[in-house]
Amino acid sequence: MDYKYLAELLFPCVTLTPEDMEKRYPPRNLPEGAVVSRHAPSPTGYVHLGNIVQSLTSERVCHQSGGVMYLRIEDTDAKREVKGAVGILIDSLAHYKIRFDEGATADGDVGAYGPYRQRQRRDIYHVYAKYLVQNGMAYPCFCTAEELAAIRKRQKAEKANLGYWGPWAVWRDRPIEDIEKALKEGKPWVLRFRSTGSIKNKYKFYDLIKGEIDITENEIDIVLLKSDGIPTYHFAHVVDDHLMRTTHVIRGDEWLASLPVHIQLFKALGFKLPKYAHIGPIMIMDGNSKRKISKRKDPQFGLIYYRKCGYPVESVYEYVLTILNSNFEDWRRANPDTPAEEFRFSLKKMNPAGALFDAAKLNDISKNVVSTMSADKIYADLLEWAKEFEPGFARALEADPDYAKAIISIGRGGKKPRKDYGTWSELREYMKFFYDDTFDVVDEYPEEADKSDIKATLAKFLETYNPADEQGVWFDKIKAIAASLGYAPEMKEYKQNPGTFRGSIADISMFLRVAVTGKLNSPDMYTVMQILGEARVRQRIESMLSRLG
RNA sequence: GGCCCGUUGGUCAAGCGGUUAAGACAUCGCCCUUUCACGGCGAUAACGGGAGUUCGACUCUCCCACGGGUCACCA
Fold first, then answer.
1. pTM for the structure as a whole
2. Which positions of strand B lie within 7 Å of protein CB atoms?
3. Last residue of a domain, one of A229, A255, A279
4. Which residue is nearest to nucleotide B38 (CA to C1')?
5. Residue A531 forms part of a structural domain
6. What does the alpha-carbon distance between residue A117 and residue A347 come to, in Å, rounded to a whole number?
7. Is the predicted pLDDT of residue A514 greater than 70, yes or no?
8. How far is the C-alpha of A385 from the C-alpha of A424, rounded, in Å?
9. What is the distance between the alpha carbons of residues A519 and A304, in angstroms, rounded to a whole number?
10. CA distance A532 to A407
11. Pairing of strands A108-110, A138-141
């Protein structure tokens, strides 16, 4: 077979050579040990936790080493194309603070190793495709989908290994005449790799996360170029990561199975093999069993879920970091105020088995994250969230920012900050009773509470209430009310002789709390009253009095 | 079916041949406290099963079971 002739037949317009590519994309001038890696998603319009897990891992490893992190768009599948998806993707990643040094951006490409959208790299792939054909390492295949299905069917019947390989590779050694004829007839074709591997050959390979793994050589003649001339993932991965001078390929472990193909391709093209790190899947509990988290079944997989709930981006970021490197938690406790970027991330610490999505853990982390934020920061983030999901609430916030910030400031700062909420939707619930239009008596008085005592407490409080009082004075007044009604003003006294009192200061406080906040539980009542202001406090207590009749 | 990866408490997980098998979340007590939240103290709870190797195995080897991935002109 005259491979040079075949190559001209297949790729008449390709004049550049692999050497030209080497010149156009020279090795990067980076210090020893600098990692070059990337996030390479396909733009389906659905951005998920997996994207964050992968991109965050790569980004940490790159930037910790003084290397380069870039974004490459894997848009080789025309069927899955969703318009606007690239923009959504870029926005989401930016929202989660994934920092790219080069690659695709909203305004086009940045960097010297582009284009970074695979569809635009067609000519580059064809240079290598032609090279492989010239050297007898690739050939055209004119099989139709039906023919391939038939082969598959026969393989199943014969219990042969599935796939286009060896004796089943019907176009692998066709005479040039057959190829010319098919070409002349305008039959669509794909370019296949001529595999020389055998599944009898096995060897060890070191994966940065999985450790030592067993590789069985690939013997399938995989598709390099689809009939539209666009490469498959495998071919694009090898060409791009070589030309973009990627040192570390960090990706989900669903790719582990095709690693033999990739290694084979790197060798065939004479490229230096990058290091690989395969991340285990994110799992989720489904009843009593674990399964891989899925786009269709689990809303928590989509990033939009976290946005809707109002999880601060920092929370999701720290949660993912916790899942990936469990020692992050210990580090965070020891360094509560240090930016997460200073944590020393390690691929070795990653669990090869993956991690389970744990909503309770996320919530806990989020509460901690929020507890360390300033009121101004919370106000700004809350407002942004509200504008998108609770426009009415957003207007209320903007109408009186100082009022909102005063509410947010309750129990903030200091050594033991309150942790009432971890998301903006929780905060919105929490803030409801501070606003008259969302205030509601959600908790009724307990059955055993004496109605006349409640009324007496409320009435007496109104008589003596002075918003100018210091907290001590304010509380002494409430204690006086308690004493006057036969309730123990001190809990200690009450606990010693509960029988001698009608109740305790706790009950008296509760009578007031329900009237003022509508709830059995609230933050410190003095602070709450200070924020609400005299008018609201009086109005709510009066309204409760008239409710009680 | 072939090939590959994985399996420590309910969950996330330390551990890398000798440990009372960390810590966190969750759960349950107690303390603090005008409620709640926070915080403090404590409790329950684990090496999938079976053979080896070894003086000794959660750690090494093999087999089995279970879970997962993959075998597309999808990534």
1. 0.88
2. 1-8, 10-14, 22-26, 33-39, 67-75
3. A279
4. A418
5. yes
6. 27
7. yes
8. 7
9. 32
10. 9
11. unpaired
